[in-house]
Every structure is written in C-alpha cells, then in structure tokens.
Write a structure and sequence with these properties.
alpha/beta; 9-stranded mixed β-sheet; 5-stranded mixed β-sheet; about 20% strand; disordered C terminus; binds fe (ii) ion
C-alpha cells in the first residue's frame, strides 16, 4: 500500500498543505487561494481538504502529518526575546503570547482535530524544512544548500549540503541577525508592507543609485568576507516595537520612513537600490563560502530571500556554481513540502533517486493545485449566463495567440494552479511584449498597481538565449538576466536626463513590456513537457508574430491572492479592463458578456487597499 504524508505549514505567514505519496509530491496549495485572504496564516483546512481529495484518500489513509517547524523552539525565541527587551516590548509580547497559548502550543491536538483523525504528527525544524524543500525536489543527487529567511525558530540563515537522501547543516546564523528581516525593514522604511512588498523594493531598486551602501555597510550590517553578518540592533525595532526600524535609521537615511501610499521620491529609490546591493553582496559571499566548503558544483536555495530573483541572477552570473535550483515556493508555504519529504527520506529512511539526466525536478512544474475540467467550465458558464465558446486542444493556442497579437489582454486560466507566489501559465494574465503601451495598460487598467513594476516574459526554452543573456532553465521565474545588447534601445540625451520613474515610459528594447529600466528581465522559460498548452500558445504566438515570448503576470489584482476558482477568474475578468478570458478550453470575450453591475462598489473597496 502506498505511504501518504501530509505536509503542513501554518501560523506564521502563507499557510499551505501538500500531499506526498511514496516520495512523490502529488498535490500542494496555499490556503490564501481558498480563503481569499492574502498570505493567510490560519490552519490550512481547505488546502488540506484539496490535497486529500486530489490524492483520492481520506484522513485515515495518512501515515503521518509533517509540520514545518517546532512550535516550542519558536516559543522559546519569543520568550527570550521578550526577556532581553522588557519592558519595551510588553505589548508586542502579550499579543504574540495570546496567539501562542491559544493555538501554537497545541498543534498536534489541533491538527488531529482539524483532520478528524488520530494521526501521527511529526515536527521538522524550520530551516531543515526549507533546506529539504530546496534539495529533495531538486534534480541534483548532491548539492550545496543555502537557506535565507526572515526568521524560523532561531535560525535565519543556514548553509550545508545534501547528498542522496541526507541533508547536513554546516553553519547557521541566528535571530535577530537576519537578511530577510533586514530586507523587510527596508520594505517598511520605503513605505511598503513587510512580508509582502519586498518584491516592490526589488522592482524599485533599478531606478535608484546605491548611495546609501556605505552607510548601511558601515552602520546597519557588519557583513564579513565569508558572508556571515550581524545587524546593529540599534537601527531596528522588531524585537520590541510595532515599527520595524528605529529613529536611528531615520537619522542615518536622511529622514523618516515613507508613509504608505504617499508619492515615491528619489530617496526611496536610492534606499531600495542600496538595500538590494547589500543583499546581493551577502548572497554572493555566502554562495562562495558554501561552494568552497562543500566543493559541489550545484546549489539549491530556499527561504523567503531566495525569491529575490535579481540576487539569484547575480549568484548564478558572478558566483562559483554551475547550476542553481530554487524551490519555487521558497517562502514558508514551501516548508510544507520540505517537512513532508523530510519524513519520507529521513524519518522513514527511503532512498532518493534523481532524474539520471539531472534535468527533471520533482515539482511537476509546480502545477500542483486544483484544476477544472471542461464539463465544470461549461456548467459554470451556463449558470452565470456568461458567454464563451469551446475550442479543441489543437485550435485553442492559435485562437488565443491571434487575440494576443491584436494587442489584447488575456486572462489565462488553464490546468492545475501553481504552488508558490508566481503565476507560471496556469493562472496568468498575458499580453504582447512588443507593445510599448502594454506595461502601463496592464498595470493601471488591470492590476491597479504602481506603474514602476516590470512584467515578466514567458519564453520558449529553446529561444531564451536569442533574447536574453541566459542559456539555462528558469521554469519558475526566479532568475533575472539582461536583454541581449542587440535588442536594447539606446536612450537619447534627453531621455537619459529623465529622473526615477519618468524613465519608465522610455522604451528600453524591442520587447519593452518586459524590459526593466536597467535592461533586465525576470524570465520564465517554458518547455513543452512542463506545460503543453502554455507552450503551444506561445509557439502559436511565435508563428504568427515571430516573437517567441509573451508578457506574463499573475491572475489577480493588487492586494488579492491569485485566482483559484472559475468564479474568482470570471469576477476578476469582469472587474478589470481585460479583453478576453480563457477558462480551460473556453474562450470568453468581454464585449459578449452580460452587464456587470458590481463594478463601482468594488472599485471603491479596492481604492482602500
Ligand atoms: Fe521561513
């Protein structure tokens, strides 16, 4: 009989569940997609239900449940942190304690109650779960491992190696010294939401100059040659207060933190650039150290900081490793996968066999979530009185490619939902990358968000090196590379003199919608075996236009999780200026749909976000 292990990550941020059958990940989903609460940290009851359903099993069929961290270690950290800063952090402390005492110390009982079965509950250590999520699904038999995080129990950073089914930790850096919390502190300081707006800081960085680097390195972080570091806690407030930085940071960075939603100035761009520079430098130094200590040619990474694709690009380009594999759900959601696989390999002592070619990983292109069959789509369309036409697998790609080539924006909902923060061609909004208007159009009319943020290209794997300085797989959109020099457009003298965000409107290349202000792009390479229908769509677009890539952004609006159900997708379609929606094999055009009356109310609600 097959062995089923349920992995769970919960109660910090981004709760998730996954199901592993005999070592194979067969389902995984984040709770936020079901509850529609972004980064939902509650017990992932609906994600668990989905995983069991997908596996065709009931709670009694589970061999064990693996939880991604050890609540008692985290409790100890909270307690000791409080004792070292009391009475400064009393309010924060009681807030945390109330939650802990209610929920977190009773996790085994809580899991058994939620699942409705007296199942064995096993606990992984937070960073072991991240390391396991990075190494076990990777295509490498042996590799160096780096985990870079905000904070787990005590550990914030770790390095080590994996070999076969074994994982070894060689060194750790402990709370409060944390690269993730440093980045979150600057996210807060530049007026974005910590634990969620980090990628905005990364997107803002190229507009700035690194003029705060010396001050940050001299005062805020003591970064050693080997990549180890200590933060100077006088600049931070997360031990005791509710703000992330202290008044010393205001003094160091020429003024107070930007208030959310107030205009961005050059100072925030310069701070973002400086913070990004320091983070990349730390990542690079750590990569060199772990390479020197282990001698392995390949590197696996996980932890929230591993979502910093600009930093990953730098590690690949300037670092010592031949290949890098990053867990697509690098944040805490992916801990569910790490915990479950740790139980399978380490607790149950199973052997690990990787793809002999060393290319295929164990994440199934991270398409591990729910899907809807055409019968369900047809039923949904009928029920909602929507208007759509079905196409065969052969005809669908060309039909949609035509729509894209006309400069229209398409909501693409096809196959199983992605696990992890990126949309990769299952729940994506797509556009034509050759259009110079596309970035502004998609940002303002569809995503309702700050216009400085670039979009990512999904490009046929075999064409990536014709457009970008990259000839490697990047299936999870976690690598950044430069647009080829020949495709870059040189700026005129007037354009060069533009400042900060004004530079946005200057086309940077022949694929302007996906080229950032510094000529970089966040790339997803698409192979047919990973996602046949998405591949065929881009291929059809290529045959029509000569362009083997499309603009890909997640199917949601600002502040909302990626769409999960048919209804989520249809509502998002109707609430925005999207032109066309693909639900499975059905194509729906906006002009054919019945009137949508909720719009005004919804826009208002959105403006408050
Ligand atoms: Fe974590």
């Amino acid at each position: 009989m097959a062995t089923h292990i349920l992995g769970i990550s919960a109660f910090y941020h981004d709760s998730a569940a996954c199901l592993v059958r005999d070592g194979e990940i067969i389902a995984a989903a984040q709770e936020e997609r079901f509850t529609r609460i972004k980064h939902d940290a509650a017990f992932p009851a609906q994600a668990v239900r989905f995983c069991l359903q997908q596996g065709g099993i009931g709670p009694a069929d589970l061999a064990s449940v693996a939880f991604y961290d050890k609540p008692l270690l985290t409790f100890e950290r909270l307690l000791e942190t409080q004792l070292s800063t009391a009475p400064l952090g009393l309010r924060q402390f009681w807030k945390s304690m109330a939650v802990w005492l209610k929920k977190k110390l009773w996790i085994p009982q809580l899991i058994q109650k939620e699942i409705g079965h007296d199942v064995q509950v096993l606990f992984g250590e937070h960073h072991e779960s991240h390391a396991a999520s990075a190494f076990y699904p990777s295509p490498f038999q042996e590799a160096a491992i780096l985990t870079l995080d905000g904070v787990g129990e005590w550990t914030t950073t770790s390095f080590g190696y994996g070999s076969g089914a074994e994982i070894h930790t060689l060194a750790e850096i402990k709370f409060p010294h944390s690269l993730g919390l440093l980045y979150s502190a600057f996210t807060y300081f530049t007026g974005f939401k910590p634990n969620s707006g980090e990628y905005k800081v990364m997107g803002l960085a190229p507009y700035g100059e690194p003029r705060y680097v010396d001050r940050i390195l001299g005062e805020v972080i003591d970064l050693k040659e080997d990549g180890s570091f200590r933060l100077n806690m006088k600049y931070f407030n997360y031990l005791s207060g509710l703000a992330m930085t202290s008044r010393h940071m205001d003094k160091l960075l020429d003024g107070p933190a930007r208030k959310p939603e107030t205009p961005l100035t050059q100072r925030e761009m310069d701070i973002a650039r400086s913070c990004q520079w320091v983070t990349e430098e730390a990542m690079l130094r750590m990569a060199r150290t772990v390479h020197a200590e282990t001698g392995y040619r390949n590197l696996c990474m996980a932890g929230g900081v591993a979502l910093n694709c600009v930093g990953n690009g730098r590690v690949l380009r300037d670092g010592p490793f031949e290949r890098i594999w990053i867990q697509p759900a690098a944040g805490d959601a992916g801990g569910a996968i790490g915990a479950a696989l740790s139980v399978w390999y380490r607790y149950n002592e199973n052997d690990r066999v990787v793809d002999p070619e060393g290319t295929k990983d164990g994440m199934s292109a991270t398409l591990l979530g729910p899907e809807y069959g055409d019968a369900e789509v047809a039923e949904y369309i009928k029920q909602t009185a929507a208007v759509g036409e079905p196409f065969s697998d052969q005809d669908l790609p060309l039909r949609v490619a035509h729509v894209l080539s006309e400069g229209k924006v398409v909501g693409w909902f096809h196959g199983r939902m992605e696990f992890g923060p990126r949309a990769l061609g299952a729940r994506s909004i797509l556009g034509d990358p050759r259009s110079s208007q596309m970035q502004a159009q998609m940002n303002l009319k569809i995503k309702f968000r700050e216009s400085f943020r670039p979009f990512a290209p999904s490009i046929l794997r075999e064409h990536v090196s014709e457009f970008f300085e990259l000839d490697a797989d990047s299936p999870y959109m976690l690598q950044v590379a430069q647009v080829k020099a020949g495709l870059q457009l040189v700026m005129s003298e007037t354009e060069k003199s533009l400042f900060g965000i004004d530079k946005l409107n200057v086309p940077r290349s022949s694929i302007p919608a996906v080229t950032h202000v510094d000529y970089s792009a966040r790339i997803q390479t698409v192979s047919r075996e990973d996602n046949p229908m998405y591949y065929d769509l881009i291929k059809a677009f290529h045959s029509l236009t000569g362009c083997p890539l499309v603009v890909n952004t997640s199917f949601n609006v600002r502040g909302e999780p990626i769409v999960n159900t048919l209804d989520d997708a249809y509502r998002c379609f109707m609430r925005t200026e999207m032109d066309c929606l693909v639900l499975g094999n059905y194509v729906l055009f906006k002009q054919d749909q019945p009137n949508w009356e909720e719009e005004g109310k919804w826009q208002e609600q959105f403006a408050l976000d």
